[in-house]
Design brief:
- This protein has 9 helices and 9 strands.
- The chain has about 260 residues and is an alpha/beta fold.
- The chain has a single domain, classed as Spore Coat Polysaccharide Biosynthesis Protein SpsA, Chain A (Alpha-Beta Complex), CATH 3.90.550.
- The protein has a 7-stranded mixed β-sheet, sandwiched between helices. Strands 6-9 form a two-stranded parallel ribbon.
- Strand 2, helix 3 and strand 3 form a beta-alpha-beta unit.
- The protein is globular.
- The N and C termini lie far apart (about 55 Å).
- The mean pLDDT is about 90.
Length: about 260
């Protein structure tokens, strides 16, 4: 009870932004927004940035606009200029930063990420971490209703990227995460070059020298296959980040050598 009171009193001073790209979510959009906001009570302010672009071809936009008339915490961001999924996330990040949010939560719609897991992030953020990453593979996490091939890709991708990039997270491909405003600004300043979901790994690479932690999450229903272009993008950018790490390491050693 004391811990809960401390958390409540601390977050009461903070502004929370929730970034959630949404497309073709007509059946679940309204329920998902309400359940997510229901897990984020007690902040000085909460804004749910629902980013919609031309990838959405059903009634999701109209449904969210109707909901926004009665739910002041919902900000529907129409972004037809987006060219890929990464553009949608980055647009949401920038909207949250511009709005002055102290913490920014990224969550996927459609209940692949469970709103009930959100409150696991808050205590860790209050411990002073710059970023808290959701993990399906740490103790307490899980992945359900997902084909074995996708599980192998996620686990294998984590092992390979940790080996090549010097990262140490148990889940390098999840997209359920929370940042301080300053850490998110830093990530954006580093640049995000991936055009597919490897950008989640790229973000974690940029954060490797920040104070980071993981929180267990329960993930459900990944798509059964991965597009060939996404796989190509992942390997291309993994190689780029590996070379970047090697170059910076060699440069650091050279500087130290010159100083000696």
């Amino acid at each position: 009870m004391i811990m809960k009171e401390l958390i409540d009193s601390s977050i009461a001073k903070l502004n929370l932004g929730i970034v959630c790209p949404m497309a073709n979510e007509a059946d679940l959009a309204m329920t998902f927004v309400k359940k997510t906001l229901g897990q984020c009570e007690g902040f000085a302010s909460v804004t749910f940035f629902a980013v919609i672009d031309c990838a959405s071809t059903d009634d999701t936009l109209d449904i969210l606009l109707i909901l926004a008339e009665s739910e002041s915490r919902l900000n529907v961001v129409w972004a037809p200029e987006n060219r890929c999924v990464v553009d949608a996330y980055v647009r949401g990040y920038k909207e949250a930063i511009y709005a002055g949010c102290d913490w920014i939560l990224e969550i996927d719609a459609g209940f692949s990420h469970q709103p009930s897991d959100i409150q696991k992030f808050f205590p860790k953020m209050l411990q002073g971490f710059d970023c808290v990453f959701g993990s399906r593979f740490c103790q307490g996490g899980s992945i359900k209703n997902s084909p074995l091939s996708r599980r192998l890709i996620s686990r294998g991708g984590t092992i390979i990227t940790n080996l090549l990039l010097g990262t140490k997270l148990t889940d390098m491909t999840s997209g359920f995460q929370m940042f301080t405003q300053q850490s998110l600004k830093y990530i954006l300043s580093q640049g995000i070059k991936s055009r597919y979901h490897f950008f989640q790994t790229e973000i974690k690479f940029h954060c490797r020298q920040l104070k980071i932690a993981e929180a267990p999450i329960h993930y459900q229903a990944a798509s059964p296959s991965v597009h060939r272009a996404a796989i190509h993008d992942a390997f291309k950018n993994l190689g780029r980040l590996f070379l970047e790490r090697q170059f910076k390491g060699a440069k650091k050693l050279k500087i130290q050598s010159n100083n000696n």
